[in-house]
């Protein structure tokens, strides 16, 4: 019997040094740590420098996206990502704060978790609420990936034809819908 392998997309980001060194080195070592967690790396985007948000709130970020194959469930993938974050000193006390490593599970195959309505509610959450509210369960696809150039630019680098299972648009189409001035600030390293 063949083991089921799911395709997962993971966003990586860092803007503080970790035990591995500078943010780019942290991303490299985090990617290297994932096979021990049951994930086979299939594609790695280029690394991109992205301005910190809000402007002046800290050092710029280094961002990337990877594609992995795994027999893990989405919840097991998320738990593995959190273990790797902790290894590199991630502190989850401040939402959207500076960080040594951020690993976000963007999508797993075409799965929608926990359901379409919950995903849509988090996707459409007003900006003011996004800063203070965090879901207590896994939401797939990531509810704000379509709004984030720092996710879409590296995603398009490796999977331009990935299609959002609810919005029906490809990664390239989602990226094209973002403001040019935002995208102009995201540069390959």
From TrEMBL:
InterPro entries cross-referenced by the UniProt entry: Hppk, Hppk_sf
NCBIfam families associated with the record: folK
Keywords, comma-separated and alphabetical: ATP-binding, Folate biosynthesis, Kinase, Nucleotide-binding, Transferase
Enzyme Commission number(s) of this protein: 2.7.6.3
Name of the protein this chain belongs to: 2-amino-4-hydroxy-6-hydroxymethyldihydropteridine pyrophosphokinase
Gene Ontology molecular-function annotations: 2-amino-4-hydroxy-6-hydroxymethyldihydropteridine diphosphokinase activity; ATP binding; kinase activity
Enzyme class name: transferase
Gene responsible for this protein: FolK
Involved pathway(s): Cofactor biosynthesis; tetrahydrofolate biosynthesis; 2-amino-4-hydroxy-6-hydroxymethyl-7,8-dihydropteridine diphosphate from 7,8-dihydroneopterin triphosphate: step 4/4
Transcription listed as a keyword: no
Family matches, as Gene3D superfamilies: 7,8-Dihydro-6-hydroxymethylpterin-pyrophosphokinase HPPK (3.30.70.560)
Keyword Heme in record: no
Family: Belongs to the HPPK family.
GO biological process, one term: folic acid biosynthetic process
Ranges annotated as spanning the membrane: none
Role according to the record: Catalyzes the transfer of pyrophosphate from adenosine triphosphate (ATP) to 6-hydroxymethyl-7,8-dihydropterin, an enzymatic step in folate biosynthesis pathway.
Organism lineage string: Bacteria, Pseudomonadati, Pseudomonadota, Alphaproteobacteria, Rhodobacterales
Domain 7,8-dihydro-6-hydroxymethylpterin-pyrophosphokinase: start-end pairs: 10-160
